[in-house]
Design a protein that fits this description.
With 75 residues, this protein is mainly alpha-helical. The chain has 1 helix and no strands. The chain has one helix at residues 2-42. The longest helix has 41 residues, at 2-42. The protein is elongated, with a radius of gyration of 31 Å.
């Protein structure tokens, strides 16, 4: 019984040591991937002109709601 508990303890310690190593390596890899994606997204050549347009339609009504009449209130 003592031998069995000793083996379990050794296996637990080995798994714990290797998991720390692999978790750190995985986290470092994920951080590097994130930084690479950010650098690719923010990378612009000097002198390039970019125009960002809002493609959202700014209408106040939907097409199926009928006619829209703009009016001014008169006092």
């Amino acid at each position: 019984m003592l031998r069995f508990l000793l083996v379990l303890l050794i296996i637990y310690l080995i798994i714990r040591i290797f998991s720390r190593y692999f978790i750190r390596r995985y986290a470092k890899n994920m951080q590097q991937n994130f930084e690479d994606r950010q650098n690719r997204y923010n990378k612009k050549k000097e002198g390039d002109v970019t125009i960002k347009t809002n493609s959202a339609n700014n209408k106040k009504f939907k097409k199926d709601e009928g006619d829209y009449v703009d009016f001014e209130e008169i006092k």
